[in-house]
Amino acid sequence: GTISTQYFSGQGIFTALICAIYSTEVYAWLKRNNITIRLPEQVPMGVARSFEVLIPVLAIILTLHPFNMLLQETTGMILPEAIMSMLKPLVAASDSLPAVLLAVLLCQILWFAGIHGTMIVTGIMNPFWMAGVSANQAALMAGEPLPHIFLQGFWDYYLLIGGIGTTLPLVFMAMRSRSHSIQSVGKLGFIPSMFNINEPLLFGFPIIMNPLFFLPFIGVPLINAVLAWQLTQWGFLDRFIALLPWSMPSPLGAAWAANGSWSNGLMSLVCILNSYVLYRPFF
Q: H helices of the chain, where?
């Protein structure tokens, strides 16, 4: 007698994506082939449009719903359950150290070439992260061990401190530089970097397309990722259970997104210190 809301959480995101793509393609195909209800021009546009979408809506419902019923009859699973079951190996693979390193490496290389790698990588990873956060929240409520490590909080507050490449320490170095131009870039970038926005540094130093910064820009987040992953695996750090804005200052975000974990906030500071040591010779 009720509609289950179980798959309105992160577990249903893959179904939402697949159904959205399917629905759009069905609508586009029907429109290209003029399979629609056309009313005379005298009919108000709002009314005409509602009739125009009637056939696509019926086509989508009359294909998806019977398919869902057939699936339930033959497998005992509804569509979201079946999709999550098929994607379990992929979800598991996305929550591994190689997946973290691959995502970071791809993001950093794209950024170094001047392409917004964060948008590309997070666009791929967000469905996995949302499903993982949902699973961690369910485990927390049930009093069970939290299963997932590589989530949005891990990405934002250990690997993007001050912005892509963990460049916050560079701001402090720049503000104390003997070069007036570098010092001005540091002052300009200080406030944005506190909220993980570092375009003033990326294009002001510059870091983008600058061979001098290639190694630390690529290497710093990779090293921080390995440290944070291993310490989480060993139980020194808590796993994330909340989605916070990426612009949250890292130590606060790392703590709050893990249910108020002081060890995660401290780890964020360790990542900053590590970044300072690694960036300093190149600076």
A: 13-32, 45-52, 54-75, 79-94, 97-112, 117-142, 152-158, 168-175, 180-194, 199-204, 211-233, 250-256, 262-279
Q: For residue range 210-219, what is the model confidence (pLDDT) as tens digits? A: 999 999 999 9
Q: Are 157 and 272 in contact, with CB atoms under 8 Å apart? A: no
Average pLDDT over residues 4-27: 84
Query: Longest Cα pair distance anywhere in the chain, in angstroms?
Result: 74
Residue 158 has what pLDDT? 96
Alpha-carbon gap, residue 19 to 42, rounded angstroms: 35
Distance CA 13, CA 10 (A): 5
| pLDDT higher than threshold 90 for residue 44 | no
Whole-angstrom Cα distance, residue 194 to residue 173?
Answer: 14
In the 8-state DSSP scheme, what is residue 8? G
**Residue 260 above 80 pLDDT?**
yes
Buried b or exposed e, range 17-35, using 16+ CB within 10 angstroms:
eebeeebeebbeebeeeee
List all residues 6 or more positions away from 198 whose beta carbon is below 8 Å from its beta carbon.
Answer: 162, 163, 164, 165, 167, 168, 189, 192
Q: Pick the residue with more confidence: 55 or 5?
A: 55
Tokens (6 digits) for 9:
């959480």
pLDDT tens readout for residues 79-94: 888 887 787 777 677 8
